[in-house]
């Protein structure tokens, strides 16, 4: 007997569980299906972000940062600790506990909002009664029907051709978060978000880390001035980053992994390491969705084709998050989930891709919103730039972390903010002010004339805005 719902959401990652909750808030009878399992086989909603992505990586980044501070910087504060050690098992256990708290929190939110949760793999069966029949393959098989279906099945790590993930020697983000000890040597292929964050974790704990990047420039999506500043900091820390690399044969053996590559000078190199982390991007996850059963259109990459409103080619079927076009960001998925739920209710959901913030949680952190200076030049846009270094910020000095800067880019004629780019302490938090400003079409002058608390890191945002008009007060 099929169970009837108004809305079925397939996937309980950031896009899926948020879509389900918002739809329930709007009065719909909602089911959410997710197959992710914890170690005991129980439900673990939250998708890649909660289980093997955003949340656990931040937990390890925090632990490793504490370790590095204790080892290298406590003495600056007059704190004596003696020899500092790291219990990797306890660190991983703390990370796992935080993941479980988030899993349990989502299950609680489903209960609170009266969303019916099904633990298993959701897939299309057929079109039925003006809607769709969905199978749930879990401990027990169930059949659900609804007129509205939201697909939020996320993405999978992309492997190197011919080198599958074994999560022992060749690791995806999943395996990189589960290492039981500190490797002596590690290579990472891909100097993107995952590569830099995971590289930072294990470097701080004592691993000799080399990052191999195929692009000629370091972080080409980041404003060039900011990327250069970040690279200087990583170089100083001992995180070895090689750009312009062509990776060749990868061999896995009892001793670890051997990576053959050609460097930017065209020289053949071989790197022998204990562990290899591959972070060369992610692919949309439509495996097992049975999209062909209902004629759901996919593109050549396997992603679900949607329009600007996240509508698919099928009436009543929507898709959000990593499984569709656009940046693979958890917060982008959440905003699309809310927007789709509101569109189903006849409202006008809104997602502005131009003001999506980006963050890399290394130390220093890197954050930005809007266009980079190189994009503005390529587009022929006349602009003004203003920068302010954390070196001149009193709170940064007190923190003992003065690396980096804040940079504003504003239209040369109207002064509207076109982009804000940051590298430095806690810029993952500071970027929110820039996002709000850009959503309200603010000018750099607006930020320059707003009172910011003293002493605070946010004063650097105000000063960078003042710098657009060449009138900084503290530099």
What does this structure look like?
Helix 1 links the parallel strand 2 (7-10) and strand 3 (30-34). This protein has helices at residues 14-25, 47-52, 54-73, 88-112, 173-176, 193-204, 224-237, 330-344, 373-378, 394-399, 427-439, 444-448, 459-468; strands at 3-4, 7-10, 30-34, 116-119, 121-128, 131-137, 141-146, 148-151, 155-157, 170-171, 185-189, 208-212, 240-242, 246-253, 256-262, 268-273, 275-278, 282-284, 317-319, 358-360, 365-370, 383-389, 405-411, 417-424. Strands 4-3-2-8-19 form a 5-stranded parallel beta sheet, covered by helices on one side. It folds into 3 domains: 3-157 and 283-351, FAD/NAD(P)-binding domain; 170-278, 3-Layer(bba) Sandwich (FAD/NAD(P)-binding domain), CATH 3.50.50.60; 355-468, Enolase-like, domain 1 (2-Layer Sandwich). Helix 1 (14-25) runs parallel beside helix 8 (330-344) and helix 3 (54-73) runs antiparallel to helix 4 (88-112). It has 475 residues and is of the alpha/beta class. The protein is globular and about 70 Å long.
- How would you write the strand order of the largest sheet? 4-3-2-8-19
CATH class of the largest domain: Alpha Beta
Beta-sheet strand percentage? 25-35%
Stretches where pLDDT is under 50 for at least 5 consecutive residues are none
N- and C-termini, Cα separation: 71 Å
Helix content: 25-40%
Kindly identify the CATH topology of the largest domain. FAD/NAD(P)-binding domain
Number of strands: 24
CATH superfamily annotation of the largest domain:
FAD/NAD(P)-binding domain
Kindly report the average pLDDT value.
97
Radius of gyration: 24 Å
Supply the number of helical segments. 13
Active site: 454
Protein name: Dihydrolipoyl dehydrogenase
Cofactor: FAD
Pfam families: Pyr_redox_2, Pyr_redox_dim
């Amino acid at each position: 007997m099929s169970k009837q719902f108004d809305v079925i959401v397939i996937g309980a990652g950031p896009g899926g569980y948020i879509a389900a909750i918002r739809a329930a808030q709007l009065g719909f009878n909602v089911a959410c299906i997710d197959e992710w399992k914890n170690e005991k086989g129980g439900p673990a909603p939250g998708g890649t972000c909660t289980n093997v992505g955003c949340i656990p990586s931040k937990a390890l980044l925090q632990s490793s940062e504490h370790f590095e501070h204790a080892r290298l910087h406590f003495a600056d504060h007059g704190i004596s600790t003696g020899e500092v050690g790291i219990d990797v098992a306890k660190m991983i256990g703390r990370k796992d506990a935080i993941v479980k708290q988030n899993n349990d929190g989502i299950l609680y939110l489903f209960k609170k909002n009266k969303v019916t949760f099904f633990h298993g793999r959701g897939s299309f069966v057929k079109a039925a009664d003006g809607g769709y029949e969905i199978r749930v393959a879990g401990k027990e098989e169930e059949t659900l029907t609804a007129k509205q279906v939201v697909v939020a099945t996320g993405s999978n790590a992309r492997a190197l051709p011919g080198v599958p993930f074994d999560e022992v020697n060749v690791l995806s983000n999943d395996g990189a978060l589960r290492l039981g000890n500190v490797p002596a040597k590690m290579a990472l292929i891909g100097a993107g978000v995952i590569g830099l964050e995971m590289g930072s974790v294990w470097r701080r704990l004592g691993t000799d880390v080399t990052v191999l990047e195929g692009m000629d420039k370091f972080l080409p999506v980041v404003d060039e001035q900011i990327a250069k500043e970040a690279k200087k900091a990583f170089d100083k820390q001992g995180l070895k980053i090689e750009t312009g690399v062509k990776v060749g044969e990868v061999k896995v053996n009892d001793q670890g992994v051997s990576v053959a590559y050609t460097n930017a000078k065209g020289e053949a190199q071989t790197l022998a390491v204990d562990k290899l982390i591959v972070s060369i991007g992610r692919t949309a996850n439509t495996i097992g969705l049975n999209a062909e059963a209902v004629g759901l259109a996919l593109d050549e990459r396997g992603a679900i084709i949607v329009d600007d409103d996240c509508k698919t080619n099928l009436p009543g079927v929507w898709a959000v998050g990593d499984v569709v076009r656009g940046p693979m960001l958890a917060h982008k998925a959440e905003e699309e989930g809310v927007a789709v739920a509101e569109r189903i209710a006849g409202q006008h959901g809104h997602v502005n891709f131009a003001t999506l913030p980006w963050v890399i949680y290394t130390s220093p952190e890197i954050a930005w919103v809007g266009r980079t200076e190189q994009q503005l030049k390529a587009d022929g846009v006349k602009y003004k730039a203003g920068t302010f270094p954390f070196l001149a910020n009193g709170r940064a000095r007190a923190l003992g972390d003065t690396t980096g800067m804040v940079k504003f880019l504003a239209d040369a004629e109207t002064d509207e903010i076109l982009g804000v780019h940051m590298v430095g302490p806690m810029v993952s938090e500071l970027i929110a002010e820039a996002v709000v400003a850009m959503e309200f079409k603010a000018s750099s002058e607006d930020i320059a004339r707003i009172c910011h608390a003293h002493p605070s890191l946010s004063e650097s945002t105000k000063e960078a805005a003042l710098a657009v008009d060449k009138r900084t007060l503290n530099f």
